[in-house]
Amino acid sequence: NMGGDVNTLNIFTLGLGPWLTSMIILMLISYRNMDKYMKQTSLEKHYKERILTLILSVIQSYFVIHEYVSKQRVHQDNIYLTILILVTGTMLLVWLADKNSRYGIAGPMPIVMVSIIKSMMHQKMEYIDASHIVIALLIILVIITLFILLFIELVEVRIPYIDLMNVSATNMKSYLSWKVNPAGSITLMMSISAF
Fold first, then answer.
1. What's the rounded Cα separation, in Å, for the pair 111 and 115?
2. What is the model's pTM?
């Protein structure tokens, strides 16, 4: 769930939206002072990202509760508990995306893709009277799209170069590796978060 699914309020209603927004905000802030950003450790970047995600998810969950839940159904005492539940769901999804980035395939993209497919099925597909062939073709198209995303994420161009300062006896080939998609999955995440 990317967020915005307020038809059925559950633990994953906010989805990965606050995390994607915090990554975009921190990336835009880092462009102002790149030297300072490059000196930060990955742990510092991780904590800043999580703290901003936590703040944004609290704000967004407060807005979702007050905008989409009727006042008669939720008592004032239960609002804080509901905010805690929504924030917990967001942080759980962020944790899963982080674990998939470290140990899984294609970073956080599979979680984002599943949420996109779920929202498409929920919003558009319930009004379409499609045959089994059309549904099978859609599933095949989604699988092909996942393989293309995986290919783009893992492919790199290796540019050979000669290291003049290397005086070792081994004749190892040196190269510069350049990813085909150097931005990674942030481009898709940014477009999904913005629109």
1. 6
2. 0.64
What region does 185 belong to: left with phi over 0, alpha with psi -120 to 50, or beta?
A: alpha
CA distance 130 to 28: 43
Domains, the chain, with CATH or none: 17-194 (1.10.3370.10)
Tens of pLDDT, residues 56-73: 999 999 988 888 777 777
Scanning the chain, the segments in alpha helix (DSSP H) are: 17-30, 34-39, 42-68, 76-103, 109-123, 132-154, 186-194
Which one, of 48, 50, 52, 62, lies nearest residue 14 by Cα? 62
- Please classify residue 19 by burial: count the beta carbons closer than 10 Å to its beta carbon, then call 0-12 exposed, 13-18 middle and 19+ buried: buried
CB atoms within 10 A of CB 132: 7
Instruction: Quote the Cα angle for 68-123-64, to 5°.
Output: 15
